[in-house]
Amino acid sequence: MARRFLFRLLHFAGIVLAITVLNFALLKALPGDLADVVATESGAASTAQVAEMRARFGLDRTLPEQLLSYVGGVLQGDLGYSFRFGEPVAKLIIERLPATVVLVSIAMAISVVAGMGLGMLAARQPNGLVDVALSALSTLGYSAPMFWTALMLIVVFGVKLPWFPVGGIRDVSAGHAGLRDLVDVAWHLVLPVVTLSIYYVAVYARLSRAALIEQLSEYYVRTARAKGAREGRVMFGHALRNAMLPVLTMLGLQSSAVLGGSIVVETVFAWPGLGQLSFEAIRSRDVLLLLGILLLSGTLVVLSNIAVDILQMRLDPRLRRRMTERPT
């Protein structure tokens, strides 16, 4: 186990390093640079001023030198300086991270719980009325573009029926504090969370339905029913445990897609998280800020996949036995 843990740790470090290098190479491959953006915005920058700006930000050095300088800074905890916001990249990310974590965590928790609940309802009677209705709704849910869903929710529940706020994280003018401020933030969370959840509820509902139908046809389920086990015991005590494995696998694979979807949701609802910060960094060509966000996103995706692997080992004893076997 110690050898495998060390191997996983080295594997994790290698993946993060590869993510850093790949992101740096892709962003540097784009035409133009920071100096060109600033010169275009100012409209009056001379060639000498552009050259001075490139020298100040280290853009006049070769790409390998820039990459080594950036990786060395990352290893020391220095993600660089954002020219757009005039603050360190690490400080900006730390300030925006909690808002994104809250949004994504709540949305994914709702998606998994609601998706598996709907999947269980559909799997009880395959091709029945409930199954057909839920299949149609789930198809509609993951077919609709996320930005369209967000706009429709704003039109219906923010304009026609002004029940929920359509932008920001809190009502600053109200001056709430304590519990009232927490309720205000939760009220602002409703539409962004619903937008992000609709797609993934549909995905997990269809996935859990297929997994449960397969498990309910296995011999161990027939044996449990033959012994007189109640249907609730069969579903929750036997079939659901094994049906959760593909759902957890999909959860790990889609962690990056969730972070990508939060960019759309946060931009539409002006939610002050990493998604909106990413959009601002892309629009202003703030490369160091975008690199820091991509590095954090990639690290979170890798960590989420490791967490999913641990949960799968807890649910499936066969995986635990494989982990204790000596590697060949």
Task: Provide a concise account of the structure shown.
The protein has 14 helices and 2 strands, in the order ααααββαααααααααα.
Task: Break the fold down into its secondary structure elements and pairings.
Elements: H1 2-28, H2 34-42, H3 47-56, H4 63-75, E1 81-82, E2 87-88, H5 89-124, H6 129-143, H7 146-160, H8 179-216, H9 219-226, H10 231-253, H11 255-268, H12 274-284, H13 287-315, H14 317-324
Antiparallel strand pairs: 1-2
Helix pairs in contact: 1-13, 2-3, 5-6, 5-8, 5-11, 5-13, 6-8, 7-8, 7-11, 8-10, 9-10, 10-13, 11-12, 12-13, 13-14
Overall 3D form: globular
Strand order of the largest sheet: 1-2
In total, the number of strands is 2
Give the low-confidence spans: none
Strand content: under 5%
Q: Average pLDDT across residues?
A: 79
SSE order, one letter for each helix or strand:
HHHHEEHHHHHHHHHH
- Counting DSSP H or I runs of 4 or more residues, the number of helices is 14
Query: Could you describe the largest sheet, including whether it forms a barrel?
Result: 2 strands, antiparallel
Helix content: over 70%
Separation of the first and last Cα atoms: 14 Å
Structural class, by secondary structure, is mainly alpha
